[in-house]
């Protein structure tokens, strides 16, 4: 009988969550670097360069890879010959580990979990509770996988109850383009097939715990139907040309994972859950000898990448830019922003639109300003702001026309594509939408020279801030005429791949 103290699990969970907040798995870094080396799309290559640079900075600075430090999922396999020493339940132990990790004073992590999800949506303040799955298995040890999953990628989860004769491949290829770029490709797609609806979802998520090994599988060949699906989908999804950050390119997925199990004769449940460019997971095993602390990777495992903006970059002063100035900005163009910008996400936009509807004043004048969709991590030490990467812009689409027409807002900055309604509003108001790279939060934060709250302080990380930035890199994603690079880029690269002009391998 192995005796495991409750503090051993608590300390190990806390250590793992701190560790994965700033260290990518080695296999992920290697896979992104390989994709970067063979990428021929300049926009996609630049995006991956920023992801790799950000990753190295986080590894050395011990600060979060992404401002969305995730909702925690913990998977435990508990040996039948294990005895727990302590007075907490298993869930309480895990949640205490989460609490300690997210409130660590040297590396504060953003609390993103809200209670009463269809009501008050009040932040729990410490990122608890975790989503916990456990199995009791033969043995005398406890195996634990700890995952921090960003909301942007989780939001792109898809499920279908297919007919038994339907093609899983066809369904996947139909829904991946619908997922857009809010899940921050390049990443990994986990696919669960079989069981019941809830089990297919669980299989998809559990598949993402496995290491990236698609190239090994390509070398040895498939030995079962799941591996055949992995190979076929890896090839066909990348041939869609979606590319890094949805900008068009050769690599959309770094790997495809598939888990299946028996299902009812009348059903074929299928689920897809993506992992993003902030893939964060760790594993440890408790054997009764004490807590487990993760081993840092060598910095030699991180490629030395430099990101060069080139001579063609457009430098913009946000304090003096005018509506006339943005009219000649071109889709796909790199822009370096300097000056003062506002911030605001879902909660702030909802409050502003409600105030506008009531005819009440906003807490800040937005005339001719740019707003950045971000919920930053709290600063530590002498930081002006913690990691501050973009959030998914489509969540603000329903507010966009009102914001542009009622406040005089000139431009927006966020992650991934905009939907049809937002693009129409941008075109009609001759505004502009700029894209920052998801997965480069710490890198972006270094461009922020000062930060202060101007409105809705009660919203915490969702308050309206004013950032003073210097040379913050962005891409023109929707120009003032309504052309979107997230529509044109993938089409161009898919056509190149289909025509055989380039090879995805």
UniProtKB/TrEMBL annotation:
Catalysed conversion reaction: (S)-malate = fumarate + H2O
Biological processes, Gene Ontology terms: generation of precursor metabolites and energy
Cofactor: [4Fe-4S] cluster
Keyword set, alphabetical order: 4Fe-4S, Iron, Iron-sulfur, Lyase, Metal-binding
The enzyme's E.C. designation: 4.2.1.2
Residue stretches making up the Fe-S hydro-lyase tartrate dehydratase alpha-type catalytic domain: 11-283
Function as written in the Swiss-Prot or TrEMBL entry: Catalyzes the reversible hydration of fumarate to (S)-malate.
Quaternary structure and interacting proteins, as annotated: Homodimer.
Name of the protein in its database record: Fumarate hydratase class I
């Amino acid at each position: 009988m192995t005796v495991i103290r409750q503090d051993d699990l608590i300390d190990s969970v806390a250590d793992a969550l701190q560790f994965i907040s700033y260290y990518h798995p080695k296999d992920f870094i290697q896979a992104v670097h390989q994709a970067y080396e063979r990428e021929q799309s300049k926009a996609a290559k630049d995006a991956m360069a920023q992801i790799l640079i950000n990753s190295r900075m986080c590894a050395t600075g011990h600060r979060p890879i992404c401002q969305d430090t995730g909702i925690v999922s913990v998977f435990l396999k508990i040996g039948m010959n294990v005895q727990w020493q302590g007075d907490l339940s298993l869930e309480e132990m895990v949640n205490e580990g989460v609490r300690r990790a997210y409130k660590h004073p040297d590396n504060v992590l953003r609390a993103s979990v809200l209670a009463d999800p269809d009501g008050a949506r009040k932040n729990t303040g410490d990122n608890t509770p975790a989503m916990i799955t456990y199995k009791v298995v033969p043995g005398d040890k406890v195996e634990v996988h700890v995952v921090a999953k960003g909301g942007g990628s989780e939001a792109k989860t898809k499920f279908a109850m297919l007919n038994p004769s339907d093609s899983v491949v066809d369904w996947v290829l139909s829904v991946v383009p619908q997922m857009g770029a809010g899940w921050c490709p390049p990443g990994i797609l986990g696919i669960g097939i079989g069981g019941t609806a809830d089990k297919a979802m669980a299989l998809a998520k559990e598949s993402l715990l496995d290491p990236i090994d698609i190239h090994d599988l390509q070398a040895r060949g498939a030995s079962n139907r799941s591996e055949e699906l992995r190979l076929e989908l890896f090839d066909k999804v990348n041939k869609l040309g979606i590319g890094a950050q949805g900008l068009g390119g050769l690599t959309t997925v770094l790997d495809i994972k598939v888990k299946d199990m028996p299902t009812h004769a009348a059903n074929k449940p299928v689920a897809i859950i993506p992992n993003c460019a902030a893939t964060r997971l760790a594993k440890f095993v408790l054997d009764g000898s004490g807590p487990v602390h993760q081993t840092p990777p060598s910095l030699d495992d991180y490629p030395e990448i430099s990101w060069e903006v080139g001579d063609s970059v457009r430098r913009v002063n946000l304090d003096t830019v005018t509506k006339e100035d943005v009219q000649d900005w071109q889709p796909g163009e790199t822009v370096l922003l300097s000056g003062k910008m506002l911030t605001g996400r879902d909660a702030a936009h909802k409050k502003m639109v409600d105030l506008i509807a009531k005819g009440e004043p906003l807490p800040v004048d937005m005339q001719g300003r740019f707003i950045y969709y971000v919920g930053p991590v709290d600063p530590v030490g002498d930081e002006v702001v913690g990691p501050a990467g973009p959030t998914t812009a489509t969540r603000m689409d329903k507010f966009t026309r009102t914001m542009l027409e009622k406040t005089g807002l000139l431009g927006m900055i966020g992650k991934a594509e905009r939907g049809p309604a937002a693009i129409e509003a941008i075109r009609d108001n001759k505004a502009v939408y700029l894209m920052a790279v998801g997965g480069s939060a710490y890198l972006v934060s270094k461009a922020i020279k000062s930060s202060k709250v101007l409105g809705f302080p009660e919203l915490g990380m969702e308050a309206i801030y004013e950032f003073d930035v210097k040379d913050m890199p962005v891409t023109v994603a929707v120009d003032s005429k309504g052309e979107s690079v997230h529509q044109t880029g993938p089409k161009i690269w898919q056509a190149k791949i289909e025509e055989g002009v380039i090879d995805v391998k």
